[in-house]
Structure prediction request, 71 residues.
Amino acid sequence: MIKGTSSPAKKDDFIRVLDSSDRSMSRFLSYCKKSKAIIKFKGWYYISPLICLKGKFISTDTVKIFLKEDP
Prediction:
């Protein structure tokens, strides 16, 4: 999905946009999950609303997912 919005993304989207290898992206996503910058929910990656605050749009669905996973 990734089109400049806060849409959820798949690993393949990150690989395509960042022009990276599968292995590098796996390590990157793992690091981001440990630091709670992203969350994987039902196969989709969501960026933390705290990181998105400087953007134009934050999906309330993403906020709800983060609150449910990390109260």
